[in-house]
Design a protein that fits this description.
Helix content: 55-70%
Radius of gyration: 34 Å
Oligomer: single chain
Strand content: under 5%
Number of strands: 0
Length: 85
């Protein structure tokens, strides 16, 4: 008997989806009331909060890396050349 009562009270999602009027959520109602009094300012999509300093171009970074590698090769070759065998 108890099991049958639970089955009868089970929520039918298909029945709920067919409802003509759907009540908005509590958060949607709260935001609608707040925005009615004080509408939000428009903001661009994914707006940055703080300005970002411009980055160096990629060729400058590449030149720095190649320069450091070349300097290390020269330094290691010079050290090996000066070392006694």
């Amino acid at each position: 008997m108890f099991q049958q009562d639970d089955d009868e009270r089970e929520f039918d999602i298909k029945w709920a989806d067919q409802a003509e009027h759907k009540e908005p959520s509590a958060r949607a109602r709260m935001l609608a009331a707040r925005w009615r009094e004080n509408p939000p300012e428009p903001q661009p999509f994914r707006a940055d909060t703080d300005p970002v300093t411009p980055r160096r171009s990629s060729w400058v970074s590449t030149a720095i890396v190649f320069g450091v590698v070349a300097a290390m090769i020269v330094l290691l070759g010079w050290v090996r050349f000066r070392a006694p065998y």
